[in-house]
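Re: folding output
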Amino acid sequence: MNDFLKGALLILLTVLLQTSVLPQYLAVAYKPDLLLVLVVYLALRAPVGVSLPAAYGLGLLKDSLGGIYLGMNGFSFLVVYLVLKALSDRLYVQSAILFVLTVSVATVSVLVINLLLLVVFSQGGGLIASMLANLAPHLLMNAFVASLITALPFYSRPWNARC
């Protein structure tokens, strides 16, 4: 139960930071996606029983807090999670550079998946131009946040030694 409370507190702090604090100081294009960074961390470091429901739940949480369509980010987070989980056994997951690179690839992947879903299921024009205009700042901010996470002391510890 202690791990559950720590995880719930981490998610609550992440959501409060992303929805309340960061919008006050950063423009929309420069706001990092902290929930996606958390999903990448869980995919690389946590066991499947914990991280699979968390990945989908974090995507649904992002949709419910400010998404266009409910389930779009849930689906894209889940696809990115499943690909990363399949690759995590073959990667050296304690590498800081690899984590930053993985967050960058996941950011682009979520954008592409969301763009494909919007093109297929909506009729709005100019989607590609508007999403690509914000890609570079969003990608750089996510990579910066990922690099800050690798500097924290808990990053180098194994998952089972987190308590």
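--- second protein (sequence, then structure) ---
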Amino acid sequence: MRIRSVEKKEAEQLRVIGIATFEDTYGSLNTPENMKIYLEKNFSKKQLLKELDNPDSKFYFLEEQEKVLGYLKINVGSSQTEYCLDEALEVERIYILSIYQGRGYGSKLLDKAVEIAKTAGVKNIWLGVWEKNLKAINFYQKNGFVVFHTHIFKLGDEEQTDLLMKKVILDE
């Protein structure tokens, strides 16, 4: 198993994995119209290329035997989806294809985010997780994250509540 940076030429593969994972996780809990709006906006090749070009956003593929199983997206500085904490790194996505879930791969990507945060010298890692995604909430709690706030996440025309969770990496 290895974790490596995603290259611009791999934007289409990133798009396919992002859409598949998002649909598997949230499709049955949302309207097809709202899913379509969200996926077209956030997982277009144009949008992903823009994010891949951003020096404050990084994507990492998780591979095993040359097969991509999922990916990690992190943001720092002004690329974070919102300002929450000083000296922080945001984990925007940990997406593992459904057939590979439950095998510890999410933990490997989270460990990579922690390693990057420590190397960068940031104090906190934070993320947003939908309040109805109990599987993800439990995963993050088991990995030392605690809820510190909420925010509204727009999925199409629906407003949903995300729990903002953080993990202290470097104590003051």
